[in-house]
């Protein structure tokens, strides 16, 4: 599935922006002393609502029509995104963050494999090599943790990786579908699924609601919207690789807000991840002639 060089540049910029938005999750989570299901409920409600506001402003009545007439591609993306969202935080609670982070780092491999199986989209060898380097970098970042993992947490993390990888491939397969509307739908579905388990859903004050609204806007609405738009313009393995920039950026926000200095291993691992992504982008630009 060919792309022009300009499409690829736009796709990379959008996925990088999505990674930056997603990387703010630890910052907002630190500010919210509630159970994960309460956070998921309100975050999804605000995130989905803000995406719909964006669609209403930019597309008018067409936004509601796209949401009401969502095709099978849009529903598939929405369901996969919902599965990824509602399994992430519980997985972190049930098992060590090392296990979850290393599994997340395998996403480029999983996405590239699914893309090949689904519609025979072959990944560039530079992307596969970059994925290996990024995996080494992320393993270095989390190598200080040595707690034994819980089987259920590991299982949820595997489900999350498979769901997000499949979502990436589906976004590229159904390029003509309104993926931004699908992103809004996935947030509402996430809130619906989380509500029965949210113990503190009615215990929030105005300040907490403001933080959750910013969480929904900055991390969810912007992240999913940018990724939904950008991943359609890139090979699935490459989109997943660029999105791994999220991991080394997470400690940056914690350092900026809470003065927690990242370890040398975190800095070295982050350099490997960013180096792998930059090298893949540069090699891709050289390999693709101007269309």
Plain-language structure description:
The chain has 291 residues and is an all-alpha fold. The protein has one domain. 78% of the residues lie in helices and 0% in strands. The chain is built from 14 helices and no strands. Helix 3 runs antiparallel to helix 10, helix 3 packs across helix 11 and helix 7 packs across helix 9. The longest helix is centred in the C-terminal third of the chain and has 25 residues. The two termini are 14 Å apart. The model has no long low-confidence stretch (mean pLDDT 81).
* Sequence of secondary-structure elements: HHHHHHHHHHHHHH
Which stretches of 5+ consecutive residues score pLDDT under 50?
none
| Helix-strand category | mainly alpha
Straight-line distance between termini:
14 Å
Q: Number of helix segments?
A: 14
Radius of gyration: 18 Å
Q: Note the main sheet.
A: none
Question: How many domains, in number, for the residues?
Answer: 1
Mean pLDDT value: 81
Give the beta-strand count: 0
Layout of secondary structure:
Elements: H1 5-22, H2 25-30, H3 36-59, H4 61-68, H5 72-94, H6 97-105, H7 107-119, H8 125-141, H9 151-173, H10 179-194, H11 206-230, H12 236-243, H13 246-258, H14 264-287
